[in-house]
Automatic annotation (TrEMBL):
It comes from Perkinsus marinus (strain ATCC 50983 / TXsc). Residues 27-253 form the Calcineurin-like phosphoesterase domain. PANTHER family: SHEWANELLA-LIKE PROTEIN PHOSPHATASE 1 (PTHR46546). Keywords: Signal. It holds the Pfam family Metallophos. InterPro entries: Calcineurin-like_PHP, Metallo-depent_PP-like. Gene3D superfamilies: 3.60.21.10. This is Serine-threonine protein phosphatase, putative. GO terms for molecular function: hydrolase activity. Residues 1-22 form the signal peptide.
């Protein structure tokens, strides 16, 4: 058995999630919108049994330094990690969040660590994220000019986004996207959508409906906020067209800090306002990870949410969202806030 160790600014022990293209996945762990909260990103990955730290921070800014003699944890074979976008803005440590996920990617590879574009990635590429950018975030980059350069062609974040991020990720019967794919886009394959988004980043052609319209995969809230009549028929249309079973989305924070399932288990709503800087949501700041246990590439055994020991969601540390025998736990629109500009 092999072990892996990576450094992500603080010294971390990583539970390796090694998988190969010839070995089917056993589970998928997804983390939704992070918004500059490196600590909760780390904790969410630990709650999903992806990453291990030995010494937690006593206060914000304290680094996690496991002793050099600590043994690495066993390989977690057959795991894929998916981050659903919006690593940046609101919180102070967006740059470190990108570097953490990049280090995981370098250590484990494209089959094991997948990153999906969020609307805040596009806002920053366009230089339009001003009201969401904190002074601490600017200082972390080394000042306003250094921050702009990082998001500009040739810069650190621009390079990561153009080379390694997907607009839509699919594994077997499961699709992952920041906001949601609507029926109007079914004239294009998933590969075409991803290639178009990548070209737009590379060419600076970001002012395109694919990335900026209300029905864009980055901006749509229909599957989270629509009524059953508004959300489920178009969702089923899209899923049938692409031959997949379900869609996992972020982008729209839940009011109660809990993940939700809709449309007969076809839509998984994973955004719980994870960041401690999402203060307008009363149950914000829980480092939640979604875990999908697979029977095979197209069928699930169960879907669980892991919140950690200290949360006020009423769900406990672990919440069973769906199983292939117990059916659906339904959600209604009233459990989500109305969309407005502060919710971007």
């Amino acid at each position: 058995m092999t072990f892996h160790r990576i450094a992500v600014v603080a010294a971390l022990l990583v539970v390796s999630v090694a998988t190969s293209s010839s070995r089917p996945l056993k589970r998928i762990v997804a983390v939704a919108d992070v918004h500059g909260d490196r600590r909760n990103l780390m904790q969410a990955l630990e709650n999903g049994r992806v990453l291990v730290h030995k010494h937690g921070p006593e206060q914000e800014g304290v680094e996690w330094h496991p002793e050099a003699s600590d043994p690495a944890e066993p390989v977690m074979e057959g795991t894929q990690v998916v981050q659903l976008g919006d690593l940046v803005d609101r919180g102070p440590l967006g740059l470190q969040c990108y570097r953490l996920m990049q280090d995981l990617y370098v250590a484990e590879g494209a089959n094991e660590v997948v990153r999906v574009l969020g609307n805040h990635e596009v806002l920053n590429l366009l230089g339009m994220a001003g009201r969401y950018v904190t002074d601490e975030d600017v200082a972390e980059f080394g000042g306003e000019e250094a921050r702009r350069e990082s998001w500009s062609p040739g810069g650190e974040i621009w390079t990561i986004l153009k080379d390694h991020y997907e607009l839509v990720h699919v594994y077997g019967g499961h699709r992952f996207v920041h906001g949601g794919v609507m029926p109007a886009l079914t004239d294009r394959s998933i590969d075409e959508l991803n290639e178009q988004a990548s070209r737009m980043i590379k060419n600076g052609a970001l002012k395109n409906p694919l990335l900026l319209s209300e029905s864009s995969p980055l901006w749509s809230r229909v599957y989270a906020l629509g009524t059953d009549e508004e959300a489920c028929p178009p969702l089923l249309n899209v899923l049938r067209h692409y031959g997949v079973a379900r869609m996992v989305v972020g982008h729209t924070p839940s009011e109660d800090g809990r993940m939700k399932v809709r449309c007969g288990g076809r839509a998984i709503l994973a955004d719980v306002a994870l960041s401690r800087w999402m203060g307008r949501y009363p149950h914000h700041g829980h480092p939640a990870a979604l875990e999908m246990t697979l029977v095979n590439a197209t069928h699930l055994e169960k879907i669980e949410a892991h919140y950690g020991p200290e949360n006020d969601t009423g769900a406990g540390q672990h919440q069973l969202l769906w199983t292939n025998t117990d059916g659906l736990i339904e959600v209604g629109k009233d459990e989500f806030a109305d969309s407005d500009e502060d919710e971007l």
